[in-house]
Amino acid sequence: MLTRSILHRISIPTSRRCLSTVQSQPQSDPASKLLKATLPFVPQFGWTMESIVRGARELGYPSVAHGVFVNGEAGLVDAFLKQCRQKHVATVEKALIDDEFKTLSTPEKIKKITAMRLDLLKPYAHRWSEALAIMAYPTNIPMSITHLAELADDVLFYAGDRSPDFDWYINRAGFAAIYTSTELFMTQDKSPDFFETARFLDSRLNQAAQLKHGKQELDTMLGFGAKSFLGLLGTRGIRV
């Protein structure tokens, strides 16, 4: 999702600064209604103005209603990621109430909570590379950083991470790199129910847990995520 220099900036205190910002949007909110109407068109038309316009037509809105999403396609992606966070947090909190994580170790919790988030991308996975490309434009980088930082904070907080020490595989920058590379892998995964993506995530988390020299391996992981992402952008004719 982000270049190496940006990934190095993803490090948020364990005080839950981000979680307090999770707010549900009323379903009657114009943006929420338009998002709901637009998403069914994304698998066919992508994260584009075409999808937004078709969603607006479904609601009987005038064609100019696409202005509900500030910055057009970027606004659509932003609205979707905000919705994903709300759904993800609600799902994880329900799992906590139901004691689904009670017997799991911290690494196992990280894997399960991350998988819950990836589940929300499955209907749009083959189009998600388009969203990643949109988020890579310079004007959209702040939005990208915010969403990735909040995700890292959510996952590690709910997994029980309270350590202020540098234990890199549960460091937010390290997780951001793992998640970014997993998202990229998912966009190319053709296996049933994204089975190979689950294996890829498991492999990355296991690798992280076994590393002994935190800073050096964090740099390696960040470099991998950045290199993979830049390669994806290159195939789409985008230079960063």
From TrEMBL:
Residues 142-211 form the COQ9 C-terminal domain. GO terms for molecular function: lipid binding. GO terms for cellular component: mitochondrial inner membrane. One of its GO terms (biological process) is ubiquinone biosynthetic process. Pathway: Cofactor biosynthesis; ubiquinone biosynthesis. Keywords: Lipid-binding, Mitochondrion, Transit peptide, Ubiquinone biosynthesis. It holds the Pfam family COQ9_N. Membrane-associated protein that warps the membrane surface to access and bind aromatic isoprenes with high specificity, including ubiquinone (CoQ) isoprene intermediates and presents them directly to Coq7, therefore facilitating the Coq7-mediated hydroxylase step. Participates in the biosynthesis of coenzyme Q, also named ubiquinone, an essential lipid-soluble electron transporter for aerobic cellular respiration. This is Ubiquinone biosynthesis protein. It comes from Lichtheimia ramosa.
